[in-house]
Amino acid sequence: MLSATIQQMYIVVVGTGYVGLVTGTCLAEIGHDVTCVDIDEAKIKRLTKGDIPIYEPGLSDLVHKNVAAARLHFTTDYAQIGAPAAIFFALPTPPNGDGEADLSFVLAAAKSVAKVMKNYTVLINKSTVPVGTAKKVRAMIKELTDVPFDVVSNPEFLREGFAVTDFMQSDRIVVGSSSPKARAVMEELYQPFINAGVQLMLMDEASSEMTKYAANSFLATKISFMNEIANLCEIVGADVDLVREGIGSDERIGRRFLYAGLGYGGSCFPKDVLALHRVAAHNDYDFKLLTAVMDVNERQRLLLVEKITDRLGENLDGVHIAVWGLAFKPDTDDVREAPAIAIIRDLLGRGATIKAYDPEAIANAKRLIDDTVQYADSALGALVDADILVIATEWKEFAAVEPEVIAKALRKKMVFDGRNLFATADMRQADLIYVSIGREAVERA
Ligand code: NAD
């Protein structure tokens, strides 16, 4: 339970995307007064009207509640931010041409902040950035202002789809700073969480910056490891889901991030693993494990296409394919680096026609893929006139569809499931050809 009374602080969050909007809203929810700044005028206009630009469970209600309580405000104008005690940077750090984290958004925002800072401010970097970024930001701001400030690293570990819960019930808060004054501000800011038992981990800024990359790279490694096990399971006749249960019960291993599938995607893992790999290379360190993690992931995302062409041939002219799932994972509308997008592009290139359905991600997918793709407004709608079904995201509603219904709809009676959503016995019972990951394929009787 979070404590009811806090020392209210005035906080600014720069960048109102997945991390920034959640951070700002949750800080308002615990009682702080928060202004969110973004240069995207359309986004701020929508937020000002109470229209939430991203899908994140629980977020909409919380935004409305805190706007109504006058604790949450939105602006595009840096000149309006006043004199906050702390400013969070939640800006994109996409890969540049070499795969390194592009810091231009962080540095541009820091420049804008430097011009309007009025008195001592703690500048908190929530973006995922390589070791040395806090130093860079500090040096740049010093050139632009005489106002005192500290730069702190405070990486974010929330997961899209669980972002509000993860923020409100986080398992740790990592703060990298050697300034006692900045550390005190951070403790005050996060006091309700600390009172509720969340561990505050104070460390130097380099270790804090590295912690975020190490966390994401470790989780990506787990996923790639399990995908390698899955591929071997198929060859030797084992079932990866049983193997997962067998090893997941060992508390040294843990049950999470052990699901075989189409590999990791999204806006974080691919770019963060690559960025850490680039940092290693720049420092003349050959991070062999990360090279393998990325290679495995690259192969895994198109594995389902290989399984389709094994059965239907390389040329898919005239094959009409239903695709369930566009988001990189369930409970989000985020399609950045989603395996579904890569799969659809590949299938289109082979001449297939596609009708896709996703509960939340269609609007975002439309911006990335060919406009020949048709979209359905339900999972069953996508099956109409389809030859085969491809499952690319494990939304719960897909698993609730009866296999018999799928069998009846599909002309070629074939399901290619990249997320192991169905029990093989149920698909056999429905007389479907069912090809999944790390499990023996089901053939028709
Ligand atoms: P996002 O793209 O959803 O949001 C970034 C926002 O910053 C956008 O709204 C953009 O308009 C805004 N912006 C860009 N330049 C700006 C400027 N100069 N001033 C003000 N606003 C500006 O990004 P995100 O997914 O929230 O990620 C932000 C950072 O957090 C990244 O470094 C990411 O790696 C990290 N992170 C993301 C997640 C996640 O699940 N998305 C989790 C943990 C950490």
Describe the structure.
The structure is a single chain. It is built from 19 helices and 14 strands. The protein has 445 residues and is an alpha/beta fold. The protein has three domains: 10-203, Rossmann fold; 213-299, N-(1-d-carboxylethyl)-l-norvaline Dehydrogenase, domain 2 (Orthogonal Bundle); 301-435, Rossmann fold (3-Layer(aba) Sandwich). It has a six-stranded parallel β-sheet, with helices on both faces. Strands 11-10-9-12-13-14 form a six-stranded parallel β-sheet. α19 (424-429) links the parallel β13 and β14. α4 (104-116) runs parallel beside α5 (133-144), α9 (205-236) crosses α11 and α11 (269-282) runs antiparallel to α12. The chain is elongated, with a radius of gyration of 24 Å. The mean pLDDT is 96. It binds nicotinamide-adenine-dinucleotide. Nicotinamide-adenine-dinucleotide (NAD) binds next to α1 and α4.
